[in-house]
């Protein structure tokens, strides 16, 4: 008897609570500033609190560094090769770390070439570059199912012009999330 | 009428470029002429070796002005073939419309021409035109005085053997340009013994990186006129190739974020996806019988050569190598393919027999040879030849022989041979832009087809239409 009373009370009360929750949208006294922080009207002229920088653990420092590295999505290649240059080891390690910790994230690896050589040959060369990049990431623990490769050959140059500077920018693999 | 006006303006513009004597007359037309075509041919080399010929303006037998300058189109065609050098109009000793109008063959003989083309145009009551033309050998005319006697069936009869060709047709206005190319074909074949390729088309890719849809699949007449957009895409288009009947194109499109091979009817716009395997779907090449498509697929790892039966979609793997195999091209007999392979280190052209699957290396000279195409007579191989880091178009005897470098332009690629084997169209870089260029099979005649804007590449010459 007592139990059924409680259940009845809940049947009535729960929707009321939910309604209250639904109506708790920002009221007109709160404002959202451009930097995304929210203040209420009550403390607009009141105290302001600050926080000290926390000491970062080595792991946190590594994550911060990786997050910065992951801003860069492009690695570059030498002429007519698909060898991943040593200078991109850390960059790829950062992407690999992210992909390993987020197994549901997928990445498309695009392979590109400069304009020299025939377009059809360059499609094959671009695929080899994308594949070499994917192999590199797989060796760092990234699952093959997270990666798709596509070669655009010389069809989508980053830089235009027929000179070594443009060519160097166009010989690349791009990680597209 | 509007269409005719456009053709006429474009023609006038080109006439002005080529005929210095006409510049004053045509100055007004030049000012109003619009840039209607993206391609315009600039001959860069080879006029010295051309055979002189006189192309006399066709005479209009009617009131007012002639509706069309057939002779100018014919002269441009013959000049562009690299074989003939039409004499400029102000040097012609007269403007006869037919053989009977020629008073003095010797005057034409002194021009040094091996032949002169004369013609007449008259308007019919139904609005169409009668076009009559004769190709005349002035030296023979000089000898016979325009009428010789020949022994036929034991009897002497009058003969006009100085008239090499003579034809008459009824033509309506929209066909004027096409009919001019037909005349060029007749003249070219009569004087060279080789079929003309003036009634052919080219397919190519036009890229305007500033446009919303930068990639365009185009077709035009072989000389760049009558340009049509067959497809616009935000993603790359590549490798157009003609069906042997000239009705369809196969090409690679990245419209779905990856390469896939499509076939498209150039007259109905209907299109069909042929392949969408994982990895590369590239470099399609129609077999000479039109039933099979050679292609490159990397679905099992490295790019290899496959042949698909188009009707059944049944696939046969032709090569199986862990390094790059690409750019299959059929030999004219349909029994074998040439292809580019890195199996020997750097890229070279190989040939595979489709029955035995036996593979032989074909090219040996230079650092690399790519993009091999066998000439229509089966006796030559046109390649992209790399030496000292430079890419030029070269030709060697097929299946073996010395290689001759034909071009001096830079970053040459995508050679395609005219169906009569006389000329190669290819893609090159001129002033930091990709443009199309022509070179004759012997390398003596060279011309550039600069685009007014954007990049033009991957030309494919149609079969005879």
Write structural notes for this entry.
The complex is a heterodimer of chains A (177) and B (465). Chain A has 177 residues and is α+β, with helices and mostly antiparallel strands. Chain A contains five helices and six strands; from the N terminus they run αββαβαβαβαβ. A four-stranded mixed β-sheet of chain A has the order 3-6-4-5. A two-stranded antiparallel ribbon of chain A has the order 1-2. In chain A, helix 2 (58-69) packs across helix 3 (89-101) and helix 3 packs across helix 4 (119-139). Chain B is mainly beta. In chain B, the strands form eight sheets. In chain B, strands 2, 3, 4, 5, 6 and 9 form a six-stranded mixed β-sheet that branches. The longest helix of chain B has 17 residues, at 2-18. Chain B starts with a helix and ends with a strand. The interface between A and B is medium-sized, with 23 and 35 residues.
Radius of gyration of chain B: 24 Å
Instruction: Classify the helix fraction of chain B into a percent range.
Output: 10-25%
Mean pLDDT of chain B: 88
Oligomer state equals: heterodimer
Number of E-type strands of chain B: 33
* Radius of gyration over C-alpha positions of chain A, nearest whole angstrom: 27 Å
Strand content of chain A: 15-25%
Give the strand content of chain B.
Answer: 35-45%
Average pLDDT number of chain A: 80
First-last Cα distance of chain B: 26 Å
Rough outline of chain B = elongated
Strand order of the largest sheet of chain A: 3-6-4-5
Classification by helices and strands of chain B: mainly beta
Largest sheet of chain B: 6 strands, mixed
